[in-house]
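ok here's Ectonucleoside triphosphate diphosphohydrolase 3, seq below lol
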Amino acid sequence: MRLLRSQDEVASEEILRDLKRYLQSLPFNFHNASIISGAEEGLYGWITANYLMGNFLKSNLWNTWVRPHGAKTIGSMDLGGASTQIAFTVPLDEGVSQEGYTRVRLYGYDYNIYTHSFLCYGKNEAEKRVLATLVKEQNNSTLMHPCFPVDYSMNMSASDIFDTPCTEQPRDYDPAKQFLLVGTGDPAACRAVVLSIFNLASCQGQANCSFDGVYQPPLSGDFLAYAGFYYTAAALKLGSSFTLDNFNSTAWEFCQKNWTTLTANYKIREKFLKSYCYSAHYVYSLLVDGYKFTDEQWKNIQFKKQVKDSTIAWSLGYMLTLSNMIPAEAKLLQLPMSNSVFAGLLFMFSALAILSLMFLIISLVRACY
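and the structure came out like this:
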């Protein structure tokens, strides 16, 4: 909807108005419907990730919800179809007047969060931008696609590529024009064309800048990468945590497999399988060239779909905020020690009490005789 609004605000408002009218007709107490901003989506995703990880609250020995001892938060990265978001905490005194920072109070504690959403850099829209680049560079109805596997080809209309605000239509644009995409399985060329859609030159000479001239403070802490990030790692048959070199080499090998080999070894639908070489190089370029993850920082990323059987999505964070399950001024018990230390001390004192009681009983029995 944000993508539609950027292209046709009137159309997006009409859809929203019809949606509200329909929801109001249903037998429940409907309050409102709106299009959230990209920054809000990033923030709600961050809340969801940390809530599921137990970084805000944790049940102690007395089944009371307390803030975990030495609590730390994790950053979140969401890769959708139209946009991608990154969010992580920074010191409370940082970036007070800079764009991209949001200060929130959760369960009685303040958090300063940097968040940014890149519209048109979602996995699907970015792939259209790659295709648009191939059309421009090759200027032919038959396009050699380095990210598609060898022995794979497909037809695609110009409207599938250019009927979006994320791509620039050619001067002689004909939406009915057909292109034949032929896979060449060239990982180096795929990496190059994917990287070309990022405007890295706009950050040249700037220390704290990701891409497209967007300010980004230095990365810190652990990160949870979900949605498209997870599905890409899963398609490459990687776990939730792996090195950057492992990801890169696996992506390279995947891209060099022909279509027959891929269909025989991967039980993935064609519409997704054909694009996972592109997805792998896109994830690499976004995280390494865009967000500036180093080899060491990459080790702090976990690629997950769920946490404790709950799917990671911004909607949970939105619900928690609106339902007041995150009270602004909640007073929480903060133990001066961790639960494990307290349990150990409790066991020790209990054992001493039992031994003392036994000693007293033995002494009384001996005194009677």
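fwiw Residues 339-368 form the longest helix (30 residues). kinda neat tbh
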